[in-house]
Amino acid sequence: MNRDVNNLLPDDIATLRQMLLERDQQIQLQLNTIELQTGSIQLQSNTIQSLESKVENQSNTIQIQSETILKQAQAQNRLENQIEKLLRQLYGRRSERFIDPNQLMLFDENDLKALEQEARERQRDEKLAAKNPAKRQPGHARKPIPDHLPREIIRHELPLPDRACPCCGGERAEIGFESSEQLEYIPASFKVLEHRRMKYACRRCQEHVAIVPPPARPIEKGLPGPGLLAHTVLGKYGDHLPLYRQEDIASRHGVILRRSTLCDWIGAAADLLEPLYSRMIELVLQSRVIHTDDTSVKLVDRMLKLSQTARFWGYYGDEFRPYIVYDFTESRKRDGPAKFLKNYQGFLQADAYGGYDGIYSGGGVLEVACWAHARRKWFDCRTTDPTRSHEVLGQVSRLYEIEREIRRAGEAERLAVRQERSIPVLGEIRAWLDVEMPKLLPKSPSGTAAIYMDNQWQALNRYCDSGILSIDNNEAERVMKPCAIGRKNWLFVGSVSGGRRAAILMGMVQTCKRNGVEPWAYLKNLFEILPGSGKVPKSSDLDRLLADRWLLEHPEHIWQID
After folding, report:
1. What angle do CA 379, 380, 386 make, to 5 degrees?
2. DSSP states of 479-495 as a string?
3. Cα torsion at 242, 247, 253, 255 (round to 10°)?
């Protein structure tokens, strides 16, 4: 090979030199080309890096924008949810009923078959009723006027000229009458009770004067009689009439009663009833289960130049201690219920307020949560998450249907039915919750509802442990309704002592309503009896004056509320 190459090379040195120069130029040209290509590659590499950086920046921007859009969507859902609740509170129905054609699919096959069988039986009954129509039942017929009301008969007679017979001209005789009733109102009236205490003396000795002791009064040396004082208390805390309105009502009868005077009467009435009210608190704290709730009230104390939000706490005793009592605190601090329930042992049914946690921690008080609260949170998710919302609402409806069926059953029967039928439904809800919770955003309406249910799960299940417990805390919420209605009328309490007196008087009126006792007659009788004691009565004497026991001795004063 080398010989072949050497044979091809010329022998002339100049030619060889020329060939080497040309070879060097080609190599240099190739090197320059390679250098240009390398630079081009480097430039392309820089361009690619720049593009990759831009893509990365754009990806980060897209991710940030996506997160922002997601947060805005969540915020929009929350705001829409809040707007819907506010609009429903202002203009809509307060009822949380819902009608969904897909709700039946929430039940299992056996339930669907049972519903189908019920529908067939209903159709069969309707066909039989169509073939054999019964007499039409009266609708909302007018109820008869009570017999105990005074009755005035007004005769309407024909004038003498109209009694002449058009045929013979003789006078037509009365042969009967047609009667119709009209219910009339006579305004309440005032009257003065003048107590004349007769004096006695010996005519022979002209001395040793004796006089009848003064009668007991609700307020010592005070103007109001027991009936007027009862009317004033009931007007404010039963009929929600502020004292300035009662002042106006009295002035229409020509009686001037200043609101400041009425306020003093209210305070004296509360002080008079305080021993009996304390006894009611003692008995409520002996209940096996207590329902409780709270609501706010404005506290305005001009003397202390104080304005703040205070609280009324309602406590609802069990069926063996059917009393309703209230407590007043200057704030919503946990020491309020903790102090009131200090010596209580039993079940406490309340909302998820954290102030109760310290009460449950001792073990003597068992927490019972409210399914109405849990249901309400899912009810508010109907527009934002209808599928999950209706799933939970359907399952909770099954629990409430069971409770409606055993509402009038005994304690043992209620417990047995709950153990047999309610616990399996609760198990289905728990299994569904475990699957769906990881899919929910914590701050979304559905996430909030799920977290609430998960945190309260043990307490939500506790009503199945005893037949005396309720599925919800609606009793306590109804107890707080008079406070909310009264707050819209008398607006605020004027002092801490005024708030405590309001709690006493509201508790007495609402206990009457719970036990079907006509409150005016009850309060009037209390104001007649309590002042004559001269000292705080014994517990045994106070027990006779409790609303439910007082009614046994005065059955004529039962209050039948439709």
Report:
1. 70
2. HHHHHHHHHHHH-EESS
3. 150
- The pLDDT value recorded for residue 206 is 77
DSSP lists the bridge partners of residue 200 as 210
How far separated are the first and last CA of the chain, in Å rounded? Answer: 127
In 406-518, alpha helices (H): 411-417, 423-436, 445-455, 457-461, 474-490, 496-515
**Burial readout 334-351 (b: 16 or more C-beta within 10 A, e: otherwise):** eebbeebbeebebbbbbb
* pLDDT for the residue 104: 41
Structure tokens belonging to residue 119: 């529908």
Pairing status of strand 199-202 against strand 306-316: unpaired
Model confidence over 28-40: pLDDT tens digits? Answer: 888 888 888 888 8
What is the separation of C-alpha 61 from the centre of its chain, rounded to a whole number of angstroms? 46
Instruction: Pick the closest to residue 271 from 100, 527, 548 (CA basis).
Output: 527
Q: In Å, what is the CA distance from 520 to each residue of 194, 273, 512, 526, 547?
A: 22, 14, 9, 10, 12
Q: How far is it, in rounded angstroms, from Cα 65 to Cα 60?
A: 8
Which residues are CB-contacts of 500 (< 8 A; sequence separation ≥ 6)?
Answer: 270, 328
Angle at 50 between CA 44 and CA 52, to 5 degrees: 100
Q: Distance (Å, rounded) from C-alpha 397 to C-alpha 512?
A: 33
Q: 463 near 415, Cβ under 8 Å? A: no
Q: Specify the pairing of strand 207-211 against strand 199-202.
A: antiparallel
Q: What is the pLDDT of residue 207?
A: 80
Mean pLDDT by 10 residues, the chain (562 residues): 60 80 85 86 86 83 80 76 72 58 47 65 70 54 77 88 85 86 82 86 84 83 89 94 93 90 93 93 95 92 81 94 94 85 92 86 88 91 86 92 91 94 94 92 88 94 93 92 90 90 95 95 92 64 92 91 65
pLDDT in tens, 41-60: 888 888 888 888 888 878 87
Determine the angle formed by the axes of helices 226-237 and 496-515, rounding to 10 degrees: 90
Q: What is the pLDDT of residue 241?
A: 93
DSSP summary character for residue 363: S
Return d(Cα 453, Cα 147) in angstroms, integer.
Answer: 53
pLDDT confidence of residue 114 = 63
Number of neighbours of residue 436 by Cβ within 10 angstroms: 17
Q: Which of 330, 237, 238, 315 is nearest to 282 (CA)?
A: 315
Alpha-carbon distance of 435 to 326, in angstroms, equals 42
